[in-house]
TrEMBL record, chain A:
This is Ferredoxin. It comes from Planomonospora parontospora subsp. parontospora.
From TrEMBL, chain B:
GO terms for molecular function: 2 iron, 2 sulfur cluster binding; metal ion binding; monooxygenase activity; oxidoreductase activity, acting on paired donors, with incorporation or reduction of molecular oxygen. This is Rieske-type oxygenase. It comes from the Bacteria. Keywords: 2Fe-2S, Iron, Iron-sulfur, Lipid degradation, Lipid metabolism, Metal-binding, Oxidoreductase, Steroid metabolism. Residues 27-129 form the Rieske domain. Homotrimer. The two-component system 3-ketosteroid-9-alpha-monooxygenase is composed of an oxygenase component KshA and a reductase component KshB. It comes from Planomonospora parontospora. Its cofactor is Fe cation. GO terms for biological process: cholesterol metabolic process; lipid catabolic process. InterPro entries: Cholesterol_7-desaturase, KshA-like_C, Rieske_2Fe-2S, Rieske_2Fe-2S_sf.
Length: 94, 385
């Protein structure tokens, strides 16, 4: 039972390198549309992330969850707007 | 099978290898611990074996393989004697550590008189066992988080249900990433959906609206349900804690929902749900208890909806996905870590992965469908629209 590849990465845009503009953490990201985002972190990127390091556990049994890095989110949006991260043309809201 | 073969004639083939021959490494909940504390041995079919669960005289909950290593008697039909479980066949006495402590008719216990014992944990009203095919103890940091409400007076007691499902337990795991089935199978209406996998934890963050076409309108004087916010995380391969808030007109109801299972064998598992509800002024003390029972029944209905799908569906190793589906392959890559030796856990199985779904198209389609359902109901004179 080995994990198989996600065919969407072959048929649509692949995971592409993106660097966080705040801390330089290097991740791979993908946008299937302007609203969809996939982010593959490495252990090193997690260590580098400033927001991650500054985060404190929240309340509740799932309080340890780090939901997202805002700086990275903005960096990915910028990369998409600048054309560094491809977003499919037909991925409008229509 | 090669990709070329798969795509012969353009027909997509469903591929499914054998189900895993081993059972996941991790903590598994066997149910509310109270029911095992009556001084009697209990039979639990799990991990391809028959287990005996018993509370010894020292108050500890113990889990052993039920078959006595002497002549194969069923310890779960035996008797608790002091700190040991006594076999009904020849009265051999087994301790919670898996060692035979005494044979009343023998001068001494033979060498090798040791059976399989599972590490147990009694926490927040639930009994957990650590399963590891390699026989190692739980590593530090691989824990089940505490659930504060479970021991507090301003929360209800657990309302617990369990049901035997004739399918491999991967089916229930896939729900972590399956946004669309919540609309079609469970009649809920997700509007936001995100997954985060990291280490041994897989999280689903979901916000949703209530479905006016799927439930009768709120009774006079009762607040209508608007929607819900849910942060649900699997802590290991089988135990999900859902921090769940139902939003009603004028109030929120906070719940903790447990969705957990243990494998019986490769082709079946026991699916369990537990819920506690926080008491508040609007709800009142009795209202919270009533709400917990109602929600418990509601969750059970949700399980039945899943089971109906699972018992008729095919196992699929190569699901065909659209971009509005969640990260099924990445979830299974995460899940794989529990089925390989600890030394073989690859970085990509545990490295952080985030997937935020674009709900624009699903929400648009579902709004339309709800409106059509309501119009149809009104036209049929259902009187509820």
């Amino acid at each position: 039972m080995t994990a198989r590849p996600d065919e969407r990465l072959l048929d649509g845009p692949p995971m592409s390198p993106v660097r966080c503009r705040a801390c330089g953490a290097a991740v791979r990201a993908r946008k299937a549309s302007w609203q969809q985002t996939s982010i593959q972190w490495s252990a090193e990127a997690v260590e580098t992330c400033l927001e991650r390091r500054a985060s404190v556990p929240g309340d509740g049994p799932n309080g340890d969850l780090f939901p997202a890095c805002e700086a990275l989110r903005e960096s990915i949006v910028r990369a998409a707007l600048d054309g560094e991260l491809p977003v499919p043309d037909d991925a409008g809201d229509g | 099978m090669t990709a070329a073969e798969t795509e012969r004639d353009g027909v997509r083939t469903i591929e499914a290898g054998a189900v895993p021959a081993r059972f996941a490494r991790g903590w598994h909940c066997l149910g509310l611990s109270e029911r095992f504390k009556d001084g009697r041995p209990h039979t639990v079919d799990a991990f391809g074996a028959k287990l005996v669960v018993f509370r010894s005289g020292d108050g500890r909950l113990n889990v052993l393989d039920a078959y006595c290593r002497h002549m194969g008697g069923d310890l779960s039909r035996g008797t608790v004697k002091g700190d040991e479980i006594a076999c009904p066949f020849h009265d051999w006495r087994w301790g919670g550590d898996g060692r035979c402590k005494k044979i009343p008719y023998a001068r001494r216990v033979p060498l090798r008189a040791r059976t399989s014992a599972w590490t147990t944990m009694d926490q927040d009203g639930m009994l957990f066992v650590w399963n590891d095919p390699e026989g190692n103890p739980p590593p530090p940091g691989v824990t089940i988080p505490r659930i504060e409400g479970a021991t507090r007076d301003d929360w209800t007691d657990w309302v617990w249900h369990e049901t035997l499902v004739a399918a491999n337990c991967r089916e229930v795991m896939d729900n972590v990433v399956d946004m669309a089935h919540f609309f079609y199978v469970h009649y809920s209406f997700p509007t936001y959906f995100k997954n985060v996998f990291e280490g041994h934890v897989a999280t689903q963050i979901m916000k949703g609206l209530s479905r006016p076409d799927a439930r009768p309108p709120a009774k006079e004087g009762r607040p209508g349900m608007l929607g819900n916010t849910s942060v649900a995380a699997y802590h290991g391969p089988s135990f999900m804690i859902d921090d769940l808030t139902y939003h009603y007109e004028g109030m929120d109801i906070d719940c903790v929902l447990i969705n957990c299972h243990y494998p019986v064998d490769a082709d079946s598992f026991v699916l369990q749900s537990g819920i506690i509800v926080q008491r508040n002024e609007r709800l009142g003390s009795a209202g919270a208890d009533e709400m917990a029972v109602r929600l418990g029944a509601f969750i059970l209905k949700g399980f039945e909806q899943d089971v109906e799908i699972w018992k008729n569906k095919a196992r699929v190793d190569n699901p065909l996905l659209c971009e509005e589906d969640g990260p099924v392959y990445q979830l299974r890559r995460w899940y794989e870590q529990f089925y390989v030796d600890a030394a073989d856990v690859a970085p990509e199985m545990v490295e952080r992965f985030e997937f935020e779904l674009d709900t624009t198209r699903p929400v648009g389609a579902w709004k339309k469908e709800v409106e059509e359902n309501l119009a149809r109901r009104a036209a049929a004179g259902g009187g509820t629209a």
